[in-house]
Each structure stands twice: as structure tokens, then as C-alpha cells.
């Protein structure tokens, strides 16, 4: 296979989930349904939070940002896959591939940061309730989100600059249904040492610090709850954290699943399945977890749908 500079590579080939023609309509219908449910569910969360004054608090501000990130996250990968299935094609242009990589890194990192910030918010609310409004001021909340975006834009930009140095062969196949950075580095024909070092260092740092923050926050919440003599107080403390813990478990569980699958074997179907859980299923389930387990969100959604049904009356 001829090796050329990236500027001569006009496209890559995505192997997708299956080559079986009989499965293509099933995959198209399944992923279209999951995409629409994800967008609608997260959009309803955003509308509920913005329209209900009872939810104008730091926790729900972060939740609406998480929902927005999840919409963008799934919109980066699934629409292109649906187009390819419908057109019975596998190609993706070099520019489209780099764009997917760029935004995927940003949105994965934002999910990571937002979950950590939400854990910190619960820690302050439960362990320092008297100072909650002072500590979690609107300015701090906006600053935390802004800093998270800036960090991820910077990290993703460096990844893309390093990626543009690499050479690829004409007709290079990516054993995935989207342009995953780790898979791209595996199929490159030039030296990827610098890319891999930066990838692993950043993944370790951006994974370790937010996860450590989450674990610390919940260890303090647990200690504080155990010191509370009132059983009602304990239940209230844990009930406000239940939804967040479910989302954290789902996010990091699927993330570690992707990492372990790719570390054990190359281009395995298990890696692709784990990636589906990570990039499609998790964003789809998040709004259901929050709406089903959280009475405030459930009530806000009910009021929102009632106003919509009766024409805003």
C-alpha cells in the first residue's frame, strides 16, 4: 500500500459495526432511534432547567451543561455513521475525520470535568450548607465551566496539530464506526511516539484529577452523612447524590471498558461494542437517570410538558 503525506490522503475508510447487508437497516433504525431519543431527552432537561425558577441552582446549571455536551457528543459521531449506512459507503474525508477527533476529545473531557464539578457542588451543599450560596456563586459556576472548555479546546488543538504531522497510506481503514484518535495512531505509517506520549499523559492527568475529586467529594459526603443523627437527613443527603452517582458509574464504567478492550486486543468487536456504550448509550441514558431519580427534575418536566400540551396556558 502506498505511503503518502496526510495532505494527499483525501479520505479514510470506516469499517463500521458490521459488513452484513441484512443488518444495515436494523443498525440504521436502531441508531437513528437512539440518536433522536438522546437529543430529545437532553433537550427536555435543558428546557426544564431554563424554564423552571426552582431549578436555577448550581447543580442544575451544571446538569444543563452536561445535557448540552451529551447532545454535541453524540452528534459528532452518529449522524455520519447513519449517512454512511444509508448511502452504503464507508468513506470519511480527512477533514471530517480530524473534525470528529477534535470535537470528541473536547466533549469527552467536558463530560469528565462536569461530573467532577457536580460532585464538588454536592460536597459543598451537604458538608457546608450554611456557606453553600457564598461558595457556589454564579460567578464561580460560570468560571468552572469556562475553564473546563478552555482546557479541552487547548488539549484538543494540540492533539490535532500532532495528528497533522503523521503520514497515512492511501485507502487506510479505521476499524471503528467513527474516527477514534487511538485507532488513527495505530494505522498511521509514521512514528507516533510523541502522539502516544501526549495522549497517555493527558488521559492520565485529565482522568486522574477529576476522578480523584469525585472520590474525595463523596468520601466527605459519606463521613458527613454518618455523623448526621437524623435518618431523614441521611436519606436526603444520599437521595440528592443518587442520580449523579449513577451517571458517574455509567460514564467511568464504559470509559474503562473501552480502555481495557483496546489495551487487551487490537480492532476487536468488543472494543467497538464498548465504544457504542460509551459514545451512544451513556448520553442517551443520562436524562432518564436524572428525570426518573430526581423529583425536582421530574416535576419540572411535568410542568414543561403540561404547558406545551395546553399551549402555554
From TrEMBL:
Sorted keywords for this record are: Cell membrane, G-protein coupled receptor, Membrane, Olfaction, Receptor, Sensory transduction, Transducer, Transmembrane, Transmembrane helix
Q: What is its main location?
A: membrane
What species is this protein from? Sciurus vulgaris (Eurasian red squirrel)
Q: Which part of the chain is the G-protein coupled receptors family 1 profile domain? A: 41-290
Q: Which residues cross the membrane?
A: 26-48, 60-81, 101-120, 140-162, 197-216, 237-260, 272-292
An example of a Gene Ontology cellular component annotation for this protein is:
plasma membrane
Q: Where in the cell is it found?
A: Cell membrane
Q: Which PANTHER family match?
A: OLFACTORY RECEPTOR (PTHR48001)
Q: Which family does it belong to?
A: Belongs to the G-protein coupled receptor 1 family.
A family per Pfam = 7tm_4
> What's the superkingdom here?
Eukaryota
Protein name (record): Olfactory receptor
Q: Spell out the InterPro entries in the cross-references.
A: GPCR_Rhodpsn, GPCR_Rhodpsn_7TM, Olfact_rcpt
Entry's Gene Ontology molecular function annotations: G protein-coupled receptor activity; olfactory receptor activity
Q: How does this protein lie in the membrane?
A: Multi-pass membrane protein
Amino acid at each position: 500500500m502506498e505511503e503518502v503525506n496526510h495532505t494527499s490522503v483525501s479520505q479514510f475508510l470506516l469499517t463500521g459495526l458490521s459488513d452484513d447487508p441484512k443488518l444495515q437497516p436494523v443498525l440504521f433504525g436502531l441508531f437513528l432511534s437512539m440518536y433522536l431519543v438522546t437529543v430529545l431527552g437532553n433537550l427536555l432537561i435543558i428546557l426544564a432547567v431554563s424554564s423552571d425558577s426552582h431549578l436555577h441552582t448550581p447543580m442544575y446549571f451544571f446538569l444543563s451543561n452536561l445535557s448540552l455536551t451529551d447532545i454535541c457528543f453524540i452528534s459528532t459521531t452518529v449522524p455520519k455513521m447513519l449517512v454512511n449506512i444509508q448511502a452504503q459507503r464507508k468513506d470519511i474525508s480527512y477533514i471530517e475525520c480530524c473534525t470528529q477527533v477534535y470535537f470528541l476529545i473536547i466533549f469527552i473531557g467536558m463530560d469528565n470535568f462536569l461530573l467532577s464539578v457536580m460532585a464538588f457542588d454536592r460536597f459543598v451543599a451537604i458538608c457546608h450548607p450554611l456557606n453553600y450560596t457564598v461558595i457556589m456563586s454564579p460567578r464561580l459556576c460560570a468560571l468552572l465551566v469556562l475553564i473546563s472548555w478552555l482546557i479541552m479546546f487547548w488539549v484538543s488543538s494540540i492533539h490535532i496539530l500532532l495528528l497533522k504531522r503523521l503520514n497515512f497510506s492511501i485507502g487506510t481503514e479505521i476499524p471503528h464506526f467513527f474516527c477514534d484518535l487511538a485507532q488513527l495512531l495505530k494505522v498511521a505509517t509514521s512514528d507516533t511516539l510523541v502522539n502516544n506520549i501526549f495522549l497517555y499523559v493527558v488521559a492520565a492527568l485529565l482522568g486522574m484529577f477529576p476522578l480523584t475529586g469525585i472520590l474525595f467529594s463523596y468520601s466527605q459526603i459519606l463521613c458527613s452523612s454518618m455523623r448526621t443523627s437524623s435518618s431523614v437527613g441521611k436519606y436526603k443527603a444520599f437521595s440528592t447524590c443518587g442520580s449523579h452517582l449513577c451517571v458517574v458509574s455509567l460514564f467511568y464504567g464504559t470509559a474503562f471498558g473501552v480502555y481495557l478492550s483496546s489495551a487487551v486486543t487490537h480492532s476487536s468487536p468488543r472494543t467497538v461494542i464498548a465504544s457504542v456504550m460509551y459514545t451512544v448509550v451513556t448520553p442517551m441514558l443520562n436524562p432518564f437517570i436524572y428525570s426518573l431519580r430526581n423529583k425536582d427534575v421530574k416535576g419540572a418536566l411535568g410542568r414543561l410538558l403540561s404547558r406545551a400540551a395546553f399551549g402555554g396556558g
